[in-house]
Each structure stands twice: as structure tokens, then as C-alpha cells.
Design a protein that fits this description.
Length: about 100
């Protein structure tokens, strides 16, 4: 959650949920989780998130660290719709309930 002030009001932005919605929208526009190129979109999301996570321990400024953490949480959430869909497609239809509970 990122807290900031807008016109005197303290606001919170939950980047994980925003990443979930935007990631699901992007993957849906690219053809859904059954499209073979979905794994590349998820790979780009993961690469950006990991890149910011690697830089994060070496940053000494509070605001830069908060923004990097914000980006890590956003792209971590953006990966989830695609990863969940890919996992469900890889499991046979009669085992999908079990695969979803074990994921």
C-alpha cells in the first residue's frame, strides 16, 4: 500500500490489486491464458518485478525505495492472472479442482 497526500487528504493505493486487474486485462487482450504468447507477457512482468527487487536493497532514499517496492508489488500482482490460467490449462480437466486447491 502506498500512502500519499492529494489535496490534503491521505490516500492509499493498493498496487497488488491494481496489478491484478491490469495484468488480467492485458493478458485477456493478448488472447487469454490459452495463447502460447501469454508466457512471454508473464516473463516480462516477472523480469521488471525482479529487476526492481534486486535494486531495492541497495537504495538508501525512502521515496525511491517506496516506489521500487510499489513496482515490485504491482508486477507481482500482474503476473498472477496469467500464471493461474497457465497452471489451469496444464492440468487435465478432471483434475482442475484438485490442481487449483494445490496451487
Amino acid at each position: 500500500m502506498l500512502l500519499f497526500r492529494l489535496r490534503g487528504r491521505l490516500l492509499a493505493v493498493d498496487m497488488v490489486n491494481f496489478g491484478l486487474f491490469l495484468g488480467g486485462f492485458i493478458i485477456n487482450r493478448r488472447g487469454g491464458y490459452e495463447n502460447p504468447t501469454t508466457i512471454y507477457v508473464v516473463f516480462v512482468f516477472a523480469s521488471v518485478g525482479i529487476g526492481c527487487a534486486v535494486i531495492l536493497p541497495f537504495v538508501s532514499g525512502f521515496y525511491i525505495a517506496a516506489i521500487l517496492l510499489w513496482i515490485v508489488l504491482f508486477f507481482g500482482g500482474a503476473m498472477m492472472p496469467g500464471l493461474t490460467g497457465i497452471m489451469m490449462v496444464s492440468v487435465p480437466p478432471y483434475l482442475r479442482a484438485f490442481g487449483n486447491s494445490n496451487g
